[in-house]
Write a structure and sequence with these properties.
CATH class of the largest domain in chain B: Alpha Beta
Distance between the termini of chain B: 50 Å
Number of helices of chain B: 12
Largest interface: B-C, 52 and 40 residues
Radius of gyration of chain B: 20 Å
Distance between the termini of chain C: 87 Å
Chains: A alpha/beta, B alpha/beta, C mainly alpha
Number of domains of chain B: 2
Number of helices of chain C: 10
Number of domains of chain C: 2
Shape of chain C: globular
Number of strands of chain B: 10
Strand content of chain C: 5-15%
CATH topology of the largest domain in chain B: Rossmann fold
Largest sheet of chain B: 6 strands, mixed
Structural class of chain C: mainly alpha
Shape of chain B: globular
CATH superfamily of the largest domain in chain B: P-loop containing nucleotide triphosphate hydrolases
Mean pLDDT of chain B: 90
Oligomer: heterotrimer
Mean pLDDT of chain C: 82
Strand content of chain B: 15-25%
Helix content of chain C: 55-70%
CATH architecture of the largest domain in chain B: 3-Layer(aba) Sandwich
Strand order of the largest sheet of chain C: 1-2
Radius of gyration of chain C: 25 Å
Order of helices and strands of chain C: EEHHHEEHHHHHHH
Structural class of chain B: alpha/beta
Number of strands of chain C: 4
């Protein structure tokens, strides 16, 4: 069965009464690369936290690989299915050495020590954290390394699905590309399902195959990236604009296609458009 | 034209580091112009603006060589209070810039510091709130407002002190798209008013390019290129090597030019409208039916 | 192109309460018509006068008055539910203590209830103390449910607290707020790594709280740097000195005006405060021997 997460009629209302998410229905399968987009307050962070049980539905259900997130005492199981990487690595690093940090998750779920150490080595290697950093206190690492340690500590739990909150915020283009390429490798080569929450549409256009657009707590669109960006009117409801090159095509439609995702693609399709 | 900022042979090394963060920077910023400062992270952009603002050398220890002058005054020898009146600085993190209990207090704080009386404070407060559209937020506390709104408050605080130079260090990097739009609208308004020198460090080149009179590229503590946008974007591959990605329409039109569908003499567009015009012309040039 | 803001989407209730560091306050309240100094005076009255009063009846009445004031002040009483655990656990704690450790005194009257033997005097004393504590607690709840941080600082500055002290207090309050938000995020991040606090031993939970210090301090240290840069950029010098030397304007303070009703209430609170102190320490007016409940119970037990 290739469905990993099944969300049915999910509602979430915060304890102080603020409604966040209404009647969301979603299916997430193996090996997908999904982007959640939408204005702040649209519910994308709330929805993603419902996927690993950090938040329990007020009504409706979220079933993760057969486990209902509303059940009690399932946290330790859920974190091995869905990993969540927070935006600011400083919020997630609370051990005094990189090694202990990466080992924290596996130890928490009660794995034998030998297994824990093997996972630490593996996760660090995949995330690009060299063993020479293992004894360092995370406070003294660069921001990029801290982010990689945070990712490694989630990878160590071997979840099938990984949610990354704002992978590229505050970074320059080369750094953003590096992180996104890494996530892409996790998806293509290791078979993870990756869900990114982001505001950067050109990143979404280049890396995500599917886009879930949220506005005021509801799913406005749940489509392949190309189809989603071809509907700027819907996106506008949640203050999202397609990438600049896509908009170029949309303004000059029908002379140019309205669903171009990258500059390279526009170049390729321009010739065909011109010949018409 | 009068120069707002004159930087000569500026070198700076933070204490406890081995490398110089700034290695001989020379830059002149004319008064009432808009300078965009771009480049990959950790190349010296923040360090440079800290030098213009005076945070370096007043708040940091290290080795300082060369000079920075703001309207003829040497920054190294000017007090922080005086600098606050001349140079305003907005940082990237909206949380760290909000230290008071309400928006109104936050705005008033800097104004009280420079010794204005009640009437003047009220006038400055009202003007700054209007420019940044935060009039209805005055009574709110930091828990009630979003990051984008906090950032607009930070900009209002800086503007309220009426500095002749306004610097913003990645003002939108931690802000959501709607908030980003608000902030770039404010920058547009400031540019149109034309009575302040504006320096903005940004990664969002797409929004920055249409506003800038000049763009400066920083790499490894030096300025590699300073030019008006047309000239700046002429060689997009060079920019990519330095970690700077031109706006998509600029890249696309650059390609059109290489295909011979866009005149070599015309400036490359830096916003969507310009891109549309260029693409339309290129479509026509090919003899579209 | 200008950006416009749209009104709140349909279905979202306009909030009646606004959040402060220590709780929630109503958006509109008749209390706000009074100067913060008056409200501070009321806090001092309700918070301190119970100390003078041993009689549980009077403290109970004070409590009822405060509940009435909360209601009048448009505070959402439902939100006060968060204090219930505190109220109940203090009660349980105090009564358990007096049952186990009544103290020894020959004048104590034993009362047998089933298998347990209580001693009347310490139990009644604890009962009276409990109501005193509750009155003081509600004084604090009343104050923090009707005053925001800014009101407290304005009140302190109005009674001539130096600006720098007020600023440091304000900064601490703001930092505490940021601290708490970071704390919440860190807890979520831990949960995302499999931490299940429900399933933990108490000693492990204590160790856990020590662990929070590491990221909290990292974040606080980094932020402190940024805050001090931001302060520099606003021209703030540690002394609060103003450029050109001269008096610092206090714009916020000028936004509040003392009216007749403020002076009237301050005088009333002041007079009642002094009267209560004098009555108790000069004449013993509020001592337990005057309590009707006490007298009644004693007569039931046959004590003089």
């Amino acid at each position: 069965m290739s469905t990993l997460i099944e969300v049915s009629h999910l509602d979430y209302v915060y304890p102080d009464g603020t409604p966040a998410v209404f009647d969301v229905n979603l299916t997430i399968d193996k090996s997908e690369f999904i982007a959640f987009i939408g204005q702040n307050g649209s519910g994308k962070t709330t929805l993603s936290k419902c996927l690993n049980g950090l938040l329990k539905p007020t009504s409706g259900s979220v079933i993760v690989e057969g486990i209902d997130t509303r059940s009690r005492g399932v946290i330790k199981q859920l974190v091995t299915k869905v990993g969540y990487v927070f935006q600011n690595p400083d919020h997630q690093l609370f051990n005094d050495s990189v090694e202990k940090e990466i080992a924290y998750g596996p130890r928490n779920i009660g794995l034998p020590e030998a297994e824990v150490m093997a996972r630490v080595r593996e996760a660090a290697a995949v995330a690009g954290v060299g063993p020479d950093h293992f004894a360092t206190h995370p406070f003294f690492l660069t921001k990029g390394l801290r982010q990689r340690v945070a990712i490694a500590s989630i990878l160590a739990l071997k979840p099938h699905t990984i949610v990354v909150d704002e992978p590229t915020t505050g970074q320059d283009m080369p750094q953003s590309i590096e992180v996104m390429n890494f996530l892409q490798r996790l998806w293509k080569e290791e078979g993870h399902t990756i869900i990114i929450i982001t505001h950067e549409m050109s990143i979404v256009a280049r890396y995500a195959q599917r886009v879930v657009v949220l506005g005021q707590g509801r799913v406005l669109l749940d489509r392949a990236t190309r189809e989603a960006f071809a509907q700027p009117d819907v996106l506008k409801q949640t203050f999202v604009e397609p990438p600049q090159i896509t908009r170029l095509g949309q303004v000059l439609n029908p002379h140019l296609p309205r669903d171009v995702l990258t500059v390279e693609e526009m170049q390729a399709r321009f010739e065909a458009a011109r010949k018409k | 034209m009068a120069m707002a900022v004159v930087i000569k042979d500026l070198e700076w090394k933070y204490e406890h580091t081995t490398q110089f963060a700034l290695r001989g920077v020379n830059l002149e910023i004319p008064e009432n112009t808009f300078l965009g400062l771009v480049g990959a992270n950790e190349q010296g952009k923040t360090t440079l603006i800290n030098c213009i603002k005076g945070l370096i050398p007043h708040s940091f220890n290290g080795v300082y060589r060369g000079s920075v002058e703001v309207f003829g005054q040497v920054v190294k020898d000017t007090t922080s209070l005086h600098l606050a009146r001349e140079v305003g600085l907005v940082f990237a993190d909206p949380e760290a810039q909000f230290t008071a209990m309400t928006v109104e207090e936050e705005l008033v704080f800097g104004l009280e510091n420079v010794g204005y009386d009640i009437r003047k404070i009220r006038a400055r407060l009202e003007w700054a709130a209007e420019v940044t559209l935060i009039g209805d937020l005055l009574d709110k506390s930091p828990y009630d407002i979003s990051g984008g709104q906090k950032q607009r408050v930070a900009i209002a605080c800086v503007l309220a002190m009426d500095p002749r130079i306004v610097i913003m260090d990645e003002p939108t990097s931690m802000i959501d798209p709607l908030g980003k739009q608000f902030i770039f609208d404010i920058l547009r308004k400031l540019k149109e008013a034309g009575d302040r020198t504006i320096i903005v460090v940004e990664h969002n080149i797409e929004q920055l390019a249409p506003l800038a009179d000049q763009l400066a590229l920083m790499r490894a503590g030096q300025i590699l290129k300073v030019a008006p946008p047309d000239e700046f974007f002429a060689d997009p591959d060079f920019l990519v090597e330095q970690g700077v990605y031109s706006p998509e329409v600029t890249l696309f039109t650059g390609w059109l030019r290489r295909q011979g569908r866009f005149p070599a003499s015309a400036p490359l567009p830096r916003d969507l409208a310009g891109g549309v015009a260029a693409a339309r012309a290129a479509l026509d040039m090919g003899g579209r039916a | 192109m200008t950006t416009t803001v749209e009104t709140a989407p349909a279905g979202v209730r306009a909030p009646k309460m606004r959040k402060t560091l220590l709780g929630y306050i109503p958006i509109a309240s008749p209390f706000y018509a009074y100067h913060p100094v008056t409200r501070l005076a009321m806090y001092i009255f309700f918070g301190v006068v119970p100390i003078f009063i041993d009689l549980p009846e009077i403290n109970f009445v004070l409590l009822l008055i405060m509940l009435g004031l909360l209601r009048w002040g448009k505070v959402d009483l439902g939100r006060l539910r968060i204090y219930l655990p505190l109220i109940v656990s203090v009660a349980i704690f105090m009564f358990t203590m007096v049952l186990i450790f009544p103290g020894r005194d020959p004048s104590y009257t034993p009362v047998t209830i089933g298998p347990a033997t209580l001693y009347y005097q310490p139990v009644f004393f604890t009962f009276a103390s409990y109501w005193r504590l509750m009155a003081m607690l509600f004084g604090t709840i009343l104050y923090f449910s009707t005053n925001r941080e800014r009101d407290t600082l304005v009140a302190l500055r109005a009674v001539r607290l130096p600006f720098i002290a007020s600023y440091v207090i304000g900064l601490s309050i703001r930092s505490a707020g940021m601290f708490m938000e970071d704390f919440r995020t860190i807890r979520e991040a831990e949960q995302a790594r499999g931490l299940d606090t429900g399933a933990m031993k108490f000693s492990d939970q204590v160790k856990l709280y020590m662990m929070y210090l590491i990221p909290l301090f990292s974040i606080a240290l980094r932020r402190a740097d940024e805050i001090s840069n931001a302060l520099f950029a606003r021209g703030y010098t540690l002394t609060g000195r103003v450029e050109g030397g001269g008096q610092r304007s206090d714009y916020i303070l000028t936004q509040y005006r003392m009216q007749l009703k403020d002076w009237v209430w301050i005088v009333i609170f002041g007079v009642l405060f002094v009267a209560a102190a004098v009555a108790q320490y000069g004449f013993g007016a509020f001592r337990l021997i005057h309590s009707p409940l006490n007298l009644y119970l004693r007569s039931l037990l046959g004590i003089g």
